[in-house]
Amino acid sequence: MENPKFVFFGTPASSVIVLEKLKEDGLIPRLIVTAPDKPQGRKMIISPPPVAIWARENNVAELQPEKLTDEVIEKIRGKAPQGAWDFFVVVAYGYILPQSLLDIPKKGVLNVHPSLLPKYRGASPIRTAILEGEEKTGVSVMVIDEEVDHGPTLSSETIEIDSSIGAISLERRLFEIGGKLLANTIPKWLSGSIEPKEQKHEEASFSNKIKRENGLIDLEDDAYKNLRKIRAYEGWPGTYFFTESGTRVKIIDAEIEHDKLKINRVIPEGKNEMRYEDFFKN
Fold first, then answer.
1. pTM assigned to the model
2. What domains can you pick out in the chain, each with its CATH number?
């Protein structure tokens, strides 16, 4: 298959995982649209997002607009080789594409969503699956329409959730699977050998945007519920509790022992990571 003409919209490291899987199959975007450079790290140094770095390393043209204005949309339209884009791909871009942008490519806009749609539409499907104690989850390749995670699906793959896995590892696994699934789906979609399947909208469930305060844990709460929170909020926002003196303590590692939550490692406010038992010795 001749390398199709497509634009990739994405921002974080999970988007790069998909880009790498597409690259392995010879599918290289002609243009990448990603978020602007932002302050990162403790020193808040202005840095490009992972997808922008990938674009530069792979000599792919890029745009980093603050907003998808009419001017930006016309610029994207105007960069199409031979005057037309075949399709767009969106993976964790961070911005909603307006209808005027969705209408540009001949074969629509594809999205990799890390859940088995219509289950867990929305912003945090991976963390929500862990929070809810799901034994299975998966990834879906869908065609974007005007509603969030509402469009017809083209393909999906199911996996089991290991009870010990955290959000970071599960995210990587799902986007690796999703990238390969997308690479396999694109030729079939372009050739017309795959039919879009309408979602069962009456069965839809939703995941909410995670907030920093969601990471607060009540140590008197159910042990299994707390462990799911620790694993679901791995990385960001993280889980934490306050001591009687008001010290904020971030939980790094924990497990269940004799039906009770056993905290193994923590980072007390203003200190380095340590064993939980050593925290009480100071």
1. 0.94
2. 6-206 (3.40.50.170), 212-279 (3.10.25.10)
